[in-house]
Amino acid sequence: MSKVVRKAVVPAAGLGTRFLPATKATPKEMLPVVDKPAIQYVVEEAVAAGLEDVLFITGRSKRPLEDHFDRNFELEEALERKGDEERLGLVTEPTELARIHYVRQGDPLGLGHAVLVAENHVGNEPFAVLLGDDLIDPRDPILPHMMQIREEHGGSVICLMEVPAESISLYGCAAVEVTSENDVVRVTDLVEKPEAAQAPSSYAVIGRYLLDPAVFEVLRKTAPGRGGEIQLTDALRVLATMPATEGGGVRGVIFGGRRYDTGDRLSYLQANIMLAAERDDLGPDLRAWLRDYVAKLS
Ligand code: UTP
Fold it and tell me: Which helix (H) or strand (E) holds 286?
């Protein structure tokens, strides 16, 4: 079996209830961060890591998503007529990023279920899962390091971030053992959204995974868990205890960079401000305004 990860799966079929009413008719992954839909950053991250085959798991209101990664001849012609090469480039760029495929999840039965519907496309290969509402700052890439760990050890690799005790109940949480590598741990168990007192560590699971194809067989047997959803966390718990010869073993890479949950309103606002404030075009004006605004607040 090939050890090389070539395909990326991007689940984007969730209901996005934390962001209503914006997400009533628009997938939350299509909400703009500064001037680009959140999901375009995610696809760019996959492509930068060499994953040019991208499968979106979509649900209701998938049209805006498909349209964004497709040609728009009317718009292209209008910009061509005006000779606006720069904006023309912005319109065509998403269509040329990657080989994009779509599959419908049907009912949003949970992240584990979303991953399972990718099985036909992925086949018997390791693959990456990038959550469409989890934005890793492009300056802090983590996938290449995860791929290196997967190549060295096989099995599955997840991405962990240290969070304050009061926030751990928002995430999946990993029980870990240290390894000889500073920022790599062996995952021994996982708990979905534990109360702080029950959390086995302060390591939260964030939305980047490299999964062994053994996960599909496990997911098929995974009963609905927390919230009545088929949880990827529950399948990872099983993989963590399975022998390496059967595709088991889960390692965690500790991420210390910048990351935003664009499905959460506060984190979404922070992502917009931070990314815009550091840009050459918008940054100087935004920073000047922010300083003024904050001074008036206090
Ligand atoms: P979330 O846990 O953020 O759930 O999903 P959600 O339903 O989208 O959002 P809220 O909590 O109601 O606001 C994490 C990721 O998994 C995808 C989502 O699109 C998101 O990228 N997902 C979740 C699916 O693709 N299918 C599902 O059944 C559930």
Answer: helix 283-297
